[in-house]
Amino acid sequence: MKLIMVEGEVSGKKYEEPFSKGVLARSLTRAEMDPNKAYTFASQIEAHLKSEGVDLINLDDLIRIVLKKLREEDKEIAEKYGLWKSIRKCKEPLIILIGGASGVGTSSIAFELANRLGIRNMISTDMIREVMRKIVSKELLPTLYESSYTAFSSLRIPTPPESDEVLIGFRDHVDTVSVGVEAVIERALKEGISIVIEGVHIVPGFIKEELVSKSNVSMFVLTLQDEEIHKGRFYSRCRQMWARRPLERYMNYFGAIRRTHKYIEGLAIKNHVPVVENIDVTTTIDSMIEHITKTYGSEEDVGEIKS
Ligand SMILES: Nc1ncnc2c1ncn2[C@@H]1O[C@H](COP(=O)(O)OP(=O)(O)O)[C@@H](O)[C@H]1O
Ligand SMILES: O=C(O)[C@@H](COP(=O)(O)O)OP(=O)(O)O
C-alpha cells in the first residue's frame, strides 16, 4: 500500500515522514477530543487525502485541512487545536514557570500543561532544592534544609518585631533556591529544550529579569482564594497512595502557608505575572494556554517546538 508522506521543516531542514493516524489522533486528544473519536477523525482525514490522490503533503497544509474539518465538527476543539498548533510552530524552546504556595496544585497543573503542549521535560523546584542540599552543608546554608513555610526558624538574625518572620524566612529560602532554578532555565535556553519548571520557589521578582523577560519564558502563579478548598487539597494529596508527606505537618503550618500564598499573589500582581485561580484543571490549563499563545504563539512561523 502506498504511504502518504508528510513534509515538515525543523531548523530550516526539510524532512519527510509517513502520515500516521496515531500521531494525528494524539494531537487531537491534546485538544481534548475523546481518544476514540480522535482516531476515527484521523482515519477520515487519511481517507480524504487518499480520495484526493495526495501522496505528499506539507505539514502546514495538513494542519489547515484538519482545522477546516474540525471547525465543521466541533468549534471548541478546533479552537484548542489551533492554539496548540500555533504554540508548536514557534522556533524557540518554551520555558514555562509555574509558581504558587504549597498545595495550590503547581505539580498537577505542570504535568497536565506539559502533556497538552507535548513538552517532555518537567522539573519541580523541590527537586532542584534537593540537589542543592547535597552540595551545600546545613551549617553553611540552613535555610536550604527547611520548607518554604518553616524557613523562618533558620534565620540567623532576629527579625524586627514589626515584620512578618514567616515572610522574611520565605524570601531567604526562595532567594537561595532561585539560584538553582536560574541554572535550569539557562541550561534549557542554551540547549534549546522546552521545559516546565514548577513549585513554590517560582516567585515573581526573584528570578533574573533578563531570563523572565524573554518572550519564550512564561511565568504563572496559581492561587486558591478559598482557604477551605486549599486545605482540602492537602487532604486529597495525602490520600494518594504514593504520598509520603504527612498531612499533619501542612495543617500545622497552614497559617504560614496562607501568608506565603498572599505574598506570592501580591508579587505576581506587582510584576504583571498572570494569576490563575486553580479551581478546575481544564479551566486553569485553558487560561494558561490562551496566555502562552498570546505572548508566544505565532500564526505565521514555521518549525516545531523543541521538546
Ligand atoms: N484543579 C484541581 N482540582 C482538583 N484537585 C486538584 C487541582 N489541582 C491540584 N489538585 C489536587 O490537589 C492536591 C495538591 O496538588 P499538587 O499539584 O500536589 O500541589 P503543589 O504541587 O502545588 O503542592 C493533589 O492531590 C492534586 O491532585
Ligand atoms: O517548601 C515547601 O513549601 C514545600 C513545597 O512543596 P509542594 O507542597 O509545593 O509540593 O516542600 P516541603 O518542604 O514541604 O517538601
Automatic annotation (TrEMBL):
Going by the record, the broad EC class of this enzyme is transferase
In the record, what terms sit under GO molecular function? Answer: ATP binding; kinase activity; phosphotransferase activity, carboxyl group as acceptor
**Highest rank taxon of the organism:** Archaea
Keyword Kinase listed? The answer is yes
What's in the keyword line of the UniProt record?
A: ATP-binding, Kinase, Nucleotide-binding, Transferase
Where does the record place the ATP-cone domain?
A: 4-92
A Pfam family cross-referenced in the UniProt record is ATP-cone
* Pathway given in the UniProt record: Thermoadapter biosynthesis; cyclic 2,3-diphosphoglycerate biosynthesis; cyclic 2,3-diphosphoglycerate from 2-phospho-D-glycerate: step 1/2
Its signal peptide is none
The Enzyme Commission number assigned here is 2.7.2.16
The record ties this protein, via InterPro entries, to: 2PKG, ATP-cone_dom, P-loop_NTPase
Write down the required cofactor(s): a divalent metal cation
Role: Catalyzes the phosphorylation of 2-phosphoglycerate to 2,3-diphosphoglycerate. Involved in the biosynthesis of cyclic 2,3-bisphosphoglycerate, a thermoprotectant.
HAMAP family in the cross-refs: 2PGK (MF_00769)
- Protein name (Swiss-Prot/TrEMBL): 2-phosphoglycerate kinase
Q: Which organism is it from?
A: Methanobacterium paludis (strain DSM 25820 / JCM 18151 / SWAN1)
